[in-house]
Structure formats: C-alpha cells, structure tokens
Amino acid sequence: MPKLSFFAHPYLLGFEALEQMLESSAKINNDGHPPYNIEQLSDDHFRIILAVAGFKIEDLSVVVEGPQLIICGEQSQGVTEFLHQGIAARQFKRVFVLAECIETIGSKFENGLLIVDLRRILREQVTHRIKIN
Q: Hey, what CATH class is 32-120 in?
C-alpha cells in the first residue's frame, strides 16, 4: 500500500525536500532529550529554550544549515565515579525546521538553559506576470 502524504497533494509542487526534512527531524528528535520549550514573545519574536543541565557552553553548538536549526550537545567524559547518576550525560541533537521567513538572531546560555531567539522577517510579496508564448 503506498504511503499517503500531505505533500502529495497536487497543488503542493516542489515540497518533497521539506517532507524529507520533516521525516528526518522526527527520527532525530524522537527520544525527548533534552526537554525544550518554544515561546512566542510577540507576533514576530520566538524563543527556543533547552534544559541542558550538566553541559558547559563549550559542549554546545547552535548551527543554521539551510532551513534547519541544529542544536547539538556533547559532554566530554571525565573520569568520575558516580554513586548515583541522575543527570543525563549523553550527547544530543535537536533539529528544528524553520520557515523561510524565520531567522536566528542569537543565543545565550544561562542557569543550565540554552536560549535561542528567532524572529520573523517580513518580505515583500513579489507578483509578476508570466508571458504566454
């Protein structure tokens, strides 16, 4: 039985790459670690907050690659003997797919939280007539 997809609709042409991106980000992000919030601060300002307890700033990276915001964390493993280890010390990769009109304006690390600020940029809609030959 063929797989049905929202993007297979005949009016949505050229969105196959977006569908593949969404599928791959769902596979990467399926373990729930680290937990995160997405806040809408205004109509055009958004914030992603990840709880990254135990990570240092040099263990974290925030990269925009095409339409994807990729946030990674990898702790350097020290030689520590734990009597109990309740804080996850595992690497993670979170991928967020951004619309074309969303740009990353900065990030900061405070109190065990990684905060990434985003904003919607308004672009003029261009209309042009196509010549019929």
A: mainly beta
Q: For the whole model, what pTM was predicted?
A: 0.73
Tokens of 124: 């003029």
- How do the domains of the chain map onto residue ranges? 1-30, 32-120
- Rounded to an integer, what distance in angstroms lies between the CA atom of residue 54 and that of residue 30? 21
Give the burial class of 55: count Cβ atoms within 10 A of its Cβ; 0-12 exposed, 13-18 middle, 19 or more buried.
buried
Helices (H), the chain: 16-28
Q: Count Cβ atoms below 10 Å from residue 118 Cβ, excluding itself.
A: 23
Q: What is the pLDDT of residues 5-34, one digit of tens each?
A: 666 666 666 767 777 767 766 666 667 789
